[in-house]
Amino acid sequence: MQSGSGLAFASDFDGTITEKDVAAMLLHEFADEKWLEVEEDFLNRKISCRETLKREFELLRGGRQQLLEYVDEHARVDPNFKSFLSLCEKRGIPVRIVSEGLDFYIEHLLAKHEIGIEFFTNQAHFENGGIRISFPNSSDECDDCGTCKLELLKDWKEEGRSIVYAGDGLSDICPAESADVVFAKGDLLSHFKKEELDHIEFKDFRDIISEMERW
Ligand SMILES: [Mg+2]
């Protein structure tokens, strides 16, 4: 294992840095229940993740303020995440968030917890009582995801860094498979187990800190 500046750490947001998936939380509370049909199509691989996000969030009703109030009440950021960031800072390991969620609640939660790291995600535009999603971090070569997490590792790879990745979902499979060390839970863990790929199972960032302290 390389130490210090040879490493770079990319993390998913929803369900990884937060306890639960905030996007799913908002859809459950504020979307027309048709979103469950869209989700079904996604899980049966009939439509891409990018298309799913677009269609699901078009069904979300509520203003920015109202949604953020709900987020404040129900979303929980892993209390160990800041200690994890301190450890990375001490070791000169850059950290970024790569997310298939939405900018408005990620920005809000990071500011609330005074977490100042870079994040890449999809953009929510509040228009006509609904939400339109745009994809500033999508890939030109693949239309599966809204945010291409794999491309967001490219600059680090070109610098010759070893990538450490943490995630819990289907959109994490692609970047995690290209990473050097993978912390996995949820659907990502199931995939890595099924495919018999090297990984470290984790519950929260306390587990990640314990592992990294041994490097
Ligand atoms: Mg996730």
Secondary-structure map:
Elements: E1 7-11, H1 22-30, H2 35-43, H3 49-58, H4 64-74, H5 81-91, E2 95-102, H6 103-112, E3 118-127, E4 130-134, H7 154-158, E5 162-167, H8 173-177, E6 181-184, H9 186-194, E7 200-201, H10 205-212
Parallel strand pairs: 1-2, 1-5, 2-3, 5-6, 6-7
Antiparallel strand pairs: 3-4
Helix pairs in contact: 1-4, 2-3, 4-6, 5-10
Bound molecules: magnesium ion.
In words, what does this structure look like?
With 215 residues, this protein is an alpha/beta fold. It has helices at 22-30, 35-43, 49-58, 64-74, 81-91, 103-112, 154-158, 173-177, 186-194, 205-212, and strands at residues 7-11, 95-102, 118-127, 130-134, 162-167, 181-184, 200-201. The protein has one domain: 3-Layer(aba) Sandwich (Rossmann fold), CATH 3.40.50. Helix content is 40%, strand content 19%. The protein has a seven-stranded mixed β-sheet. α8 links the parallel β5 and β6. The mean pLDDT is 95. It binds magnesium ion. Residues 12, 14-16, 21, 167-169 line the site of magnesium ion (MG). Magnesium ion (MG) binds at residues 12, 14-16, 21, 167-169.
